[in-house]
Design goal:
about 220 residues, mainly alpha
Length: about 220
C-alpha cells in the first residue's frame, strides 16, 4: 500500500495549503502588466500645452515681425501662468482621485518627476532668465522649449510603453530641424510641430485608454 504523503500534490491542493503555483505567478504578472499599461494617462495637460504652443509661437513671430517687443514678455509670462496654474489644479484633483481609489501607479510618478525636472527646472529657469536679463547664452527660448518638450514627451512614451508619445517627440524633433533651416518662419514651424506633437498623441492615447476601459468593464 502506497503512502499517500509521498504522492505529489496537485496545484489545487497546493493552493489550499497556501502555496503559490505557476498559474498564480502568471496571473499576478498579467495583472501587473495590465495596471502598468492601462493607468489613466490624464492627457488633458498635454492637450492644454499643445494649444498654448499653437498660440504662443505664431503670436511671438508676428510680434517680432511688427516690432512689438515690449509685449513679448508679458504675453509669454501670462501664458506660462495659465499653464502652470492649470497643471497645479489638475494635479490636486488627480492626486485626490487616486488616493481615493487607493492606487497611485509608480510609472505615473516617474513620468511626473521627469516633466518637473525637464520642463520646470530647466525650461522655465533658462527661458525666464534669458527673457528677463536679455541673455540667451543657453539658446533661443523657443527652440529650447521645443527641445525640452521633445525630450520629455519621448521619455514619457518610453516609460509608459506608449509609442504615440515617442512619435510625438520625433515629430517635434523634425519640426526643430526644419525651423533651424527655415529661419524666417522658424517660430511658426515650431508652434505647429510642438502643438501637434503634443495634441495628436494625447488624443490617441486617451482614446485607446477609454477603449481598453470599456473592454475591461
Amino acid at each position: 500500500m502506497k503512502d499517500e504523503n509521498l504522492e505529489p500534490k496537485s496545484d489545487v491542493e497546493k493552493n489550499e495549503n497556501g502555496k503559490i503555483t505557476s498559474d498564480d505567478v502568471k496571473f499576478m504578472r498579467l495583472a501587473i502588466e495590465k495596471n502598468y499599461k492601462q493607468f489613466n494617462p490624464d492627457t488633458h495637460t498635454f492637450i492644454m500645452w499643445g494649444v498654448i504652443c499653437l498660440i504662443c509661437y505664431p503670436v511671438i513671430h508676428f510680434m517680432v515681425e511688427f516690432q512689438l517687443f515690449k509685449w513679448i514678455l508679458p504675453f509669454f509670462l501670462s501664458l506660462m501662468t495659465v499653464g502652470l496654474s492649470y497643471i497645479l489644479i489638475s494635479l490636486c484633483f488627480i492626486n485626490r482621485r487616486e488616493k481615493k481609489a487607493g492606487f497611485v501607479p509608480l510609472i505615473k510618478k516617474q513620468a511626473l518627476w521627469a516633466w518637473i525636472i525637464i520642463m520646470v527646472l530647466h525650461g522655465l529657469t533658462w527661458n525666464i532668465l534669458g527673457t528677463v536679463f536679455n541673455n540667451y547664452c543657453a539658446g533661443d527660448p523657443g527652440f529650447l522649449f521645443a527641445i525640452l518638450f521633445s525630450i520629455a514627451l519621448s521619455i514619457t512614451g518610453i516609460f509608459s510603453s506608449k509609442k504615440e508619445g515617442l512619435y510625438g517627440g520625433m515629430l517635434i524633433y523634425i519640426g526643430l530641424l526644419l525651423a533651424f533651416f527655415i529661419k524666417d518662419y522658424s517660430y511658426i514651424i515650431l508652434g505647429l510641430a510642438t502643438g501637434m506633437g503634443l495634441i495628436i498623441p494625447a488624443i490617441i492615447i486617451q482614446r485607446n485608454y477609454r477603449k481598453q476601459e470599456k473592454e475591461n468593464a
